[in-house]
Amino acid sequence: MASVTDVPHKRRPQRAEILPGFDAVTLRAPFFLRLGAAIIDYLIFVIFPASGLVIARILGADGSKIIHSDLNNFAWLLGLLATAANIMLLPLVTGQSLGKMATGIRIVDLTGRMPSFGKILLRQTIGYLLIAGSFGIGFLISALSKKGRALDDYLAGTVVVHGQPKLRRRA
Length: 171
What we know:
By secondary structure, the protein is mostly helical. The chain has helices spanning about 25, 30-60, 65, 70-95, 100-105, 115-135, 135-145, 150-155; strands spanning about 15-20, 105-110, 160, 170. Strands 1-4 form a two-stranded antiparallel ribbon. It is elongated. It starts with 16 loop residues before the first strand and ends with a strand.
C-alpha cells in the first residue's frame, strides 16, 4: 500500500486574480482623461531639456552656444531616460505611467487583470510607434470607439480603465 508521500503530486494551477463582473466598456477611461495622461507624460519628457536651456541661459550661454552645450545634451539625455522609465518600466511594474497615475487610469487586459509582460511590452513599443506613425490617429480611435480602445490597446489586447479596480482571488 502506497503512503501519501509516495504518490506523485500534481502542481495545482495558480489562483488567478479576477475582477468579477468586469466590463471594459463600462470602466473604460474617457478620452480626455487619457489625453490628460498623455500630456503629463509628454511634460515629463520636455521638462528636462527646457530646464537645461533655462539653466544654460542663466549661466551665461547664449544663442547657438546653448544648443551645442554639454548641459543641453545632458538635459536631453535625462529627458529620454526619464521618458523611457515612465513609458516602459512603470507600466511593466504597475500598469500605469506617471500621467496615468495622476489621472487615476490604468492599463488592464480584457479580463480586468494586470496585463502580461509581453502585452505591456508590445503595447508600449510597437503600439506607440504605430500611433506616432499614424500622427496620432491611432490614439484618436479611442475617442470614436465604443470600447474606448486605441490602436495600441487593440494590438496588445488591453484596455485603459478609469479607477483602481480591486482584484479578488478566485475561490
